[in-house]
Specification:
heterodimer, A: 399 residues, 7-stranded mixed beta sheet, globular, B: 142 residues, alpha+beta
């Protein structure tokens, strides 16, 4: 199945071997067309205008919200649109963390977390004098559930982990985490699903998590749109932190009242074209089928893993874990990742290097920095062969 | 641009040689420099005696360009007076930013002048200047 031809960017960059989907995914024609069509036919500020175009724009926005909700088995009024996962997590830190937590409460963060799901909790802990603890990993790179169990106690009020670790591709066992947390505490659970939402089916009700965050641009959608799922009773409890239009009920000179539902978090003109694009991205995913996407990506991942293992001087990280997103973290012995990326770039192979926004994880794994190749349905076996060719060049050049 | 124009002999030689990649026993000044995007992470150390740069070195992990550039830097400034060091560092940073420097200043840069083509590669400028910016921060404290 040739999925690559569904993505116009490869028409315009015929030599490009794009192996950085974990950073941002490319966009299929259908998503780009949806955004274009919105702007040439229906663009207006939603929720405000009393004219046909405004109503249409509003309906597209609400339609998009329903699409996202259905995608993860939530209700529409349990979805808040944001700029992306980072904003969603900060919204939680400001609106939930700062208002609901207090001194002495404990926050448990997976050490494999992206900075966006770590730094906000550092800030909350500092401000409120909470205790911030980290759940460590086993030798294979997966979450250490025994460690989690030991660290849970009656003071634990928040537990947050990555579902898919962006650096290594390891998928953490969220069901087991939820079981343990629910068994021992009253803590709320946040799942950072940015890396998994376009690879495996997520059902927030079945998972029984309290919050989930994701970004549109990592699932074939536009940049600048993402979301936060929160149980309805949480949304009603949480206080807004972004004040302005649409999130209010009444505004007097001295005082204002706010909406009580999800809309209190959607102040300001919403990114309707982003929602339209995201909606089209979900359609795209569902048309192919998450199962098909997953099995295609697994084929590419397995092929790439075998090929890289066959190269002398390549070290792979966390490659023995059975449950992974299509990501390979690796290093070339004796060659700094940046130099690897430079050589590959001259051959039009794009990989990511550095800390991958997970400095604590890198320190924990005792890896100063590493290379990361991440795949999607637009990658082919030929792409992997070009990666291997490039790496062989790296090895011989820096010998 | 082909590989040999980026990884020139001067860079590869300095990258392999470890003579400046060492920890000082009693450094007077320490400064950490970091490129989070690519993973360069150096700790720069200087020993100042009076107005002389008595010794210097760096430890940490970095790519070939940042490592070579750091090594070249220390070859240039160790044993020189602080005023000379400040001038040399200032001129290198100007050159990398593609600002004009005089022929004499360029000559003074010696091997560092050979890093000039890095100024055409925005992705590597931060690597080339990492150690130099660290030393500049130390000089500003003197």
């Amino acid at each position: 199945m040739n999925y690559k031809e569904l993505f116009p960017i490869f028409e315009n960059n015929k030599e490009l071997v794009y192996l950085d989907t974990a950073a941002t995914s490319q966009k299929p024609k259908s998503v780009l067309e949806a955004v274009w069509n919105y702007n040439i036919n229906y663009n207006a500020n939603p929720n405000r205008g009393g004219y046909k175009l405004g109503v249409k724009s509003t309906n597209l926005f609400l339609g998009g919200k329903k699409k996202v909700a259905d995608f993860i088995n939530a209700q529409s009024d349990e979805i808040i649109f944001t700029k992306g996962a980072t904003e969603s997590l900060n919204l939680l830190a400001y609106s939930y963390g700062l208002n609901e937590l207090k001194e002495g409460d404990e926050i448990l963060v997976g050490i494999s977390s992206h900075h966006s799901n770590l730094v906000p909790w550092q800030e909350v802990s500092k401000k409120l004098r909470c205790k911030l603890k980290y759940i460590v990993l086993k030798a294979d790179g997966d979450l250490d559930l025994e460690d989690l169990s030991e660290k849970l106690n009656e003071n634990t009020k928040l537990v947050t982990i990555s579902h898919g670790v962006n650096t290594t591709g390891v998928i953490h066992p969220i069901k087991d985490v939820v079981s343990l947390v629910r068994e021992k505490t009253e803590a709320k659970i946040i799942l950072d699903a940015a890396q998994t939402i376009s690879h495996i089916k997520l059902d927030v009700k079945e998972l029984d998590i309290d919050f989930l965050v994701f970004s549109g641009h990592k699932m074939f959608g536009p940049m600048g749109i993402g979301g936060l799922y929160a149980k309805k009773e949480m949304i009603e409890k949480m206080k807004p932190f972004l004040f302005g239009g649409d999130m209010i009920e009444f505004v007097e000179k001295e005082n204002s009242t706010y909406r009580t539902d999800f809309q209190k978090f959607e102040g300001g003109t919403q990114n309707v074209e982003g929602v339209v694009g995201l909606s089209a991205a979900i359609d795209f995913i569902e048309e192919i089928g998450l199962g098909n996407i997953h099995s295609y990506e697994d084929e590419i991942l397995n092929y790439a893993t075998e090929k890289l293992k066959g190269l002398e001087g390549i070290k792979l990280y966390c490659d023995t874990v059975s449950h992974k997103t299509p990501v390979i973290a690796f290093n070339v012995e004796g060659v700094h990742p940046h130099d690897v990326a430079q050589v590959l770039d001259l051959k039009n192979v794009a990989i990511r290097t550095g800390h991958h926004c997970t400095q604590p994880l890198m320190k924990y794994l005792e890896v100063p920095s590493c290379c990361r190749a991440s795949f999607s349905i637009y990658n082919t076996f030929e792409d992997i062969d070009k990666l291997v060719e490039g790496l062989e060049k790296v090895i011989s050049y820096f010998k | 641009m082909d590989l040999d124009k980026i990884y020139t002999e001067v860079i590869m030689d300095h990258n392999k040689s470890r003579h400046n990649k060492r920890e000082l026993e009693n450094p007077d000044y320490t400064e950490r420099g970091h490129n989070p995007n690519c993973g360069d992470d150096f700790t720069i150390q200087l020993k100042i005696e009076g107005n002389k740069i008595a010794d210097g070195g760096f430890v940490g992990e970095g790519c070939a360009i940042s490592t070579a550039s750091a090594s070249i830097l220390f070859d240039l400034i160790i044993g020189r007076e602080v005023e000379d060091g400040k001038r040399i560092v200032g001129n290198f940073l100007k050159m990398i930013k593609q600002e004009e420097i005089s022929e004499d200043d360029r000559e003074e840069l010696e091997d560092a002048g050979l890093l000039e083509n890095i100024s055409n590669m925005p992705g590597r400028v931060k690597c080339a200047t990492l150690a130099w910016n660290g030393v500049k921060v130390i000089f500003e404290k003197l």
